[in-house]
Write a structure and sequence with these properties.
The protein has about 350 residues and is α/β, with parallel strands linked by helices. It has 2 domains: about 150 residues, Rossmann fold, CATH 3.40.50.1980; about 130 residues, Nitrogenase molybdenum iron protein domain (Rossmann fold, 3-Layer(aba) Sandwich). The chain contains 13 helices and 12 strands. The strands form 3 sheets. Strands 5-4-3-6-7 form a 5-stranded parallel sheet. The longest helix has 24 residues.
Length: about 350
């Protein structure tokens, strides 16, 4: 499985938690969300500011622009999604094919220059697109990718990869930071209001539904050396916190990493989650179909959630580390799967 962003620059313990995510072949219980989830920018009537921009990024770095950025290069999928939600099409983006597979919340138009992997972009290709701003996801203010980009005479906006203290707030802060840099604050306000309204409506719908249990766990996984590794999204994960914001209770109470709230376990560990409902990614890694491997495991089949048909694949293409539009897809999936 592809690494989550610039895992090569991470410490070993955190990198271990982030080894999943990103390929092209997919299978799921349900198909990808409808395109209506994407922004129809032809109908957008929000204004774009025109004056100079002075902002502080996620790591206290000052970014000064003579005017809002128009030609942006974006090196991480959430931030690509965010730009498109704001009706700003990047001139360059990292791992275009991967984005199209893993993030269906927005569609990246043809013609955007692919600058290679998220962790090791081709800088010559990137700066050959003449961007007026490069947007990158970082884990510390001293990340190597920031140092590399700063060698060029183009402003760099560093956004925070994750914050387990409040992942929903961090997701929205990243979105609003990109809006500020591109002069799209008015559009951002509309999107955030829609997200909050969607969350409240979904919470009410689940409260009114007769769900079997409000205990849940979301997970993904991979196969390595013939063994299945499972990654539960625990406290501090975006998927976990969105579920809890709907009134559910995250059943994973094991250890998690301090940034993303991601845990690690095996099939035996999942048998200890009682009557919790299981949710899992519907996108399959061709390097190893973990969902198929689980389906063939006798111990897995005896877990209450599986035996009672309370183990549900999310629609394919929902990015579990995305922006407001992905988060709305997550909310819709939780409601649809719990109330169907």
């Amino acid at each position: 499985m592809k690494t989550r962003s610039i895992a090569a620059a991470l410490t070993a313990p955190l990198a271990l938690f982030l080894v999943a995510c990103g390929t092209t072949d997919t299978t799921a219980e349900e198909k990808a969300p409808e395109a209506v989830d994407s922004v129809d920018c032809s109908a957008d009537e929000t204004a774009t500011s025109t004056g100079p921009v002075s902002l502080t990024d996620s790591y206290g770095r000052t970014v000064e622009l003579d005017k809002p950025a128009e030609r942006i290069a974006v090196l991480e999928w959430q931030q690509i999604e965010d730009a498109l939600t704001l009706c700003v099409t990047p001139v360059a983006a990292a791992d275009v094919e991967g984005f199209g597979t893993w993030d269906s919340a927005e569609t990246l138009p043809e013609g955007v220059t692919d600058v290679g992997t998220r962790g090791e972009p081709n800088l010559e290709t990137l700066f050959g697109t003449n961007p007026d701003l490069v947007i990158v996801e970082a884990y510390t203010a001293e990340d190597e990718i920031i140092k590399q980009l700063e060698q060029y005479d183009v402003p760099v906006l560093a956004t925070k990869g994750a914050d387990a203290a409040d992942p929903v707030a961090n997701m929205l802060a990243t979105f609003e930071l990109i809006a500020e840099a591109t002069g799209r604050e008015e559009r951002a306000e509309v999107v955030v209001d829609e997200f909050n309204a969607s969350l409240e409506a979904a919470k009410a719908e689940i409260e009114d539904a007769d769900v079997a249990t409000t205990d849940f766990v979301y997970f993904d996984g991979w196969i390595q050396g013939g063994n299945v590794s499972i990654r539960p999204f625990g406290q501090g994960s975006l998927m976990g916190e969105l579920g809890e914001a709907l009134g559910l209770t995250n059943a994973w109470t094991g250890d998690v990493d301090p940034a993303y709230g991601l845990g690690g376990t095996d099939i035996e560990g999942m048998t200890e989650l009682g009557d919790a409902t299981f949710f899992y990614t519907g996108t399959t890694d061709p390097a190893g179909d973990v969902n198929a491997a689980l389906a063939e495991n006798a111990a897995w089949q005896e877990i209450p959630a599986v035996a009672e048909d309370r183990a549900h694949a999310f629609p394919e293409g929902i990015w579990t580390f995305g922006g407001p539009r992905s988060a709305q897809q997550v909310i819709d999936a939780y409601v649809d799967l719990l109330t169907k």
